[in-house]
Design brief:
The complex is a heterodimer. Chain A is mainly α. In chain A, strands 2-3 form a two-stranded parallel sheet. In chain A, helix 4 runs antiparallel to helix 5 and helix 6 packs antiparallel against helix 8. Chain A starts with a helix and ends with a helix. By secondary structure, chain B is mostly helical. In chain B, 63% of the residues lie in helices and 4% in strands. Chain B has 18 helices and two strands. In chain B, strands 1-2 form a two-stranded antiparallel ribbon. In chain B, strand 1 and strand 2 form a beta hairpin. The chains are: A mainly alpha, B mainly alpha. At the A-B interface, helix 2, strand 1, helix 4, helix 5 and helix 6 of A face helix 1, helix 2, helix 3, helix 4 and helix 5 of B. Strand 1 of chain A pairs parallel with strand 1 of chain B, so a sheet runs across the interface.
């Protein structure tokens, strides 16, 4: 009984209650009590009145506006296709269409002796991809190799590579996918000039890197970088043709994701190659770009 | 003393309460490091920092410090690898591109069709005759099968059905071989059955319920009309299949194939355009039919056209390009694995396949450097060894010379290996020379040579001259 009356025990109990109570209050304070459902009588509410929504055809072309939004591509105008003199298509898109139909007719006429539809499709796809998705690869004989791998040479080389990126970049350009999206969605309002400018940026990267003397220890990473620049140049150039020759754009988009990853790896590999020469670079060297790309890049 | 004890007691209790309260109300927060040059991990990308002094002291760095995220287009492009842009943009772009391709392809095909096919196969001008030939062959085979021992027709009316199908086909042949829809339905057949049942007036005399059950459940087998209908249906199916006109559901992106086709009309206030939504297959099919002699007959079904275009799209959009078409096989050492031929191998294979003399020249040049280096190193090793024989040599010099001899021996081992490897590669190339002295090795062999060459830790001329200067100074 004495222990019950012990003020220390009583104090501990009081503090404990206070803490628990305080925590409870803090936890629930401010929360509105859940409204208890009242009048739970089941009642079928009256269905809302269905109203007629008027349809419009603002361009008066016979296709209602709500349908128009599902057909975003330019309309095929039949009246325009009766030309007196036929000009074979010059774009890959047009050539692909005509080739497909020629093959389809030949399949019909040739019977069992003709190639199958699958073969026809594969031939067309192979032809399109080989003509638009394969790039020339730059190799050792295309670059200037120096035998000198001294610290000074490596430093100069690293700074030259980074300076090319810093000099020829254009900060006013968005990401190429954003530019492409704007272009394909609003071709009548947005032209492809920004995409073409961005392609020039990569072309400049490529051309200036090609003429930069490379120490022999850096040949592989150097060529990787050049080929990635070239691939990006080709990709973005193809994006700029989205309205004139969309098949080329589509085919290049297939490899675009790989190429952007390749770009990242190429720069990281350059960083790896320089990392063994870290002591030769100064804090204000442009080559620090590669380190910062590795550290803060994607 | 009691007061002091009481104070300590209260402080302890208060501290306990504080700790308890803190534990109750504390919510852990994820630590976010400020962007400014602090390495995230000790072993991550910063471990081998390009320059340790750089990151720590980049306050005054030049444009390089801001280049990564702000100005360098390579950075924004490479950021695509983060997949955010890919996930959010590429699908929409590809969809729009696909629609544009469809429109342009349709237009070009229509131009080509309306131009009279521009030298296309002549058979399209007599497609009707072509199709009839196909149909004749098919129906003949089928009629043979109907009369054969394994026919599904019951013997009593086998011949009747054969004749009926043949007559029906002949009647329909004027319409391109398309059989007319069956005019005698199952109901009609059962009416005939009732006649049969009522003729004798005695249900039991004609087989009873058992016969009735067979006839009623399998009319295609036990009644003339049922068999005829069945045969005609099968014949129709065969003819349809023979012309490749079977109906296939086109499932390509749900509505992707809808196109807006417009034609010029004369409106109340002048020329106008009237458009409708249809598929490319429809509009092309109509144009094809109009341009050929098949008249109202359809040359190629719209679905067939849609189907082949869809198959092409499917192939074109399939994610299959990697490696030499993409650049993912970039190079080893990135932690990236690639199943195909690495990009660098392709690169080297193509380059030296085109100009194999260039790799030969590199090998010969390097062999010369290694040989020269070996001569210099041997010379200095001998000179250091002679100096070490001098009993008056100071201990410090003796240590230096001994270290130099050890270094030279190590270098000579590498030189020996390099020289042997380079000589082997040179000889291998020479073995592949033809009578005219041209290198005639296959690309795979050249690629192997190039790979082995890049693996050799060759010495450079500068390295050689630098060591020569060091050894020369030591001996002064």
């Amino acid at each position: 009984m004495n222990s019950v009356q012990n003020p220390k025990v009583m104090g501990a109990f009081l503090i404990g209650f206070a803490l628990v109570g305080g925590t409870y209050v803090v936890t629930n304070f401010g929360q509105a009590p859940a409204a208890s459902p009242t009048n739970l009588t089941a009642a079928a509410s009256e269905a809302p009145v269905r109203l007629f929504v008027p349809v419009s055809d603002s361009d008066a072309d016979g296709v209602e506006d709500w349908q128009d939004q599902f057909v975003k591509a330019p309309a095929v105008v039949v009246s325009d296709i009766t030309e007196e003199t036929y000009t074979p298509p010059t774009t890959l898109t047009g050539q692909m269409g005509v080739s497909l139909m020629e093959d389809l007719l030949l399949i019909k006429g040739g019977g069992p002796l003709a190639k199958t539809e699958d073969q026809a499709v594969q031939n067309i796809v192979d032809r399109v991809e080989s003509s638009s998705a394969l790039d020339t690869l730059y190799d050792v004989k295309d670059v200037i190799v120096v035998r000198n791998n001294s610290n000074e040479t490596v430093r100069a080389y690293g700074n030259a590579l980074a300076s090319i990126v810093l000099t020829y970049s254009d900060a006013n350009l968005d990401h190429e996918l954003l530019l492409l999206q704007d272009y394909v969605n609003q071709p009548e309002k947005v032209d492809n000039s920004k995409l073409l400018r961005l392609a020039e940026v990569y072309r400049d990267y490529r051309d200036n890197t090609l003429i930069t003397p490379v120490p022999s220890n850096f040949i592989k990473s150097h060529l990787d970088l050049i080929n990635v620049y070239h691939a990006m140049y080709m990709n973005i150039t193809a994006m700029a043709e989205a309205e004139t020759d969309p098949v080329v754009t589509l085919v290049r988009l297939k490899r675009y994701e790989d190429d952007t990853l390749g770009l990242r790896y190429a720069i990281e590999n350059i960083y790896d190659a320089f990392s063994t020469y870290s002591s030769v670079f100064a804090a204000d060297d442009p080559a620090i770009f590669f380190a910062r790309f590795y550290q803060f890049g994607p | 003393m009691n007061f002091l004890f009481s104070c300590v007691e209260k402080l302890s209790l208060g501290l306990f309460a504080l700790c308890f309260s803190f534990v109750c109300v504390y919510t852990p927060q994820v630590f976010v490091a400020e962007a400014g040059g602090v390495c995230v991990t000790a072993t991550g990308p910063c471990a081998g920092e390009l320059s340790n002094t750089t990151i720590a002291g980049n306050t005054g760095a030049t444009a390089a410090s801001a280049a990564v995220s702000a100005t360098a287009n390579v950075s924004t492009s490479a950021s695509t690898g983060s997949t955010f842009l890919l996930d959010n943009l590429l699908d929409g772009i590809a969809w729009t591109l696909g629609k544009t391709i469809l429109s342009q392809m349709t237009s070009q095909i229509l131009k080509w069709v309306n131009s009279g096919f521009e030298g296309s196969p002549a058979f399209v001008t007599d497609m009707k005759g072509f199709l009839l030939n196909v149909s004749d062959e098919v129906i003949g085979t089928y009629l043979d099968e109907l009369g054969g021992p394994f026919s599904f027709l019951c013997a009593p009316f086998k011949l009747d059905v054969q004749v009926a199908v043949a007559i029906a086909y002949e009647t329909a042949r004027s319409n391109g071989g398309i059989l007319p829809p069956a005019t005698c339905s199952l109901t009609g057949a059962l009416e005939n059955l009732e006649d049969f049942l009522g003729a004798s007036g005695n249900f039991a005399d004609n087989g009873g319920w058992s016969a009735w059950l067979k006839v009623s459940t399998q009319p295609e087998t036990y009644t003339t009309f049922g068999a005829g209908i069945g045969a005609n249906i099968q014949a129709q199916a065969r003819l349809v299949n023979a012309r490749g006109e079977e109906i296939k559901l086109l499932e390509f992106g749900g509505g992707f194939f809808s196109n807006k086709i417009c034609e010029a009309i004369e409106g109340p206030s002048g020329p106008d355009e009237r458009c409708s939504i249809t598929t490319p297959g429809n509009v092309i099919s109509e144009a094809l039919t109009f341009q050929t002699s098949s008249g109202a007959r359809t040359l190629i079904e719209a679905d067939e056209i849609n189907e082949i275009i869809a198959a092409t799209f499917s192939q074109l959009t399939q994610k299959a390009i990697t490696g030499t078409l993409g650049l993912l096989g970039l190079s080893p050492g990135t932690g990236y694995s690639y199943e195909g031929t690495p990009f660098t191998e392709e690169l080297m294979a193509e380059g030296f396949t085109k100009d194999p003399e260039s790799i030969y020249e590199l090998i010969v040049d390097d062999l010369l450097i290694e040989t020269t280096y070996e001569t210099i190193a041997s010379d200095y090793r001998d000179r250091f060894t002679i100096e070490l024989l001098d009993p008056t040599l100071s201990a410090e010099k003796r240590t230096q010379y001994q270290d130099a001899v050890d270094d030279i021996n190590t270098i000579r081992v590498v030189i020996g290996g390099n020289a042997a490897d380079l000589t082997a590669l040179r000889d291998e190339i020479n073995l592949n020379r033809n009578g005219a002295g041209e290198i005639n090795a296959d690309p795979a062999a050249l690629q192997s040579i190039v790979e082995r060459y890049f693996d050799i830790p060759i010495h450079t001329e500068i390295e050689m001259n630098s060591n020569e200067d060091i050894w020369s100074n030591m001996l002064r």
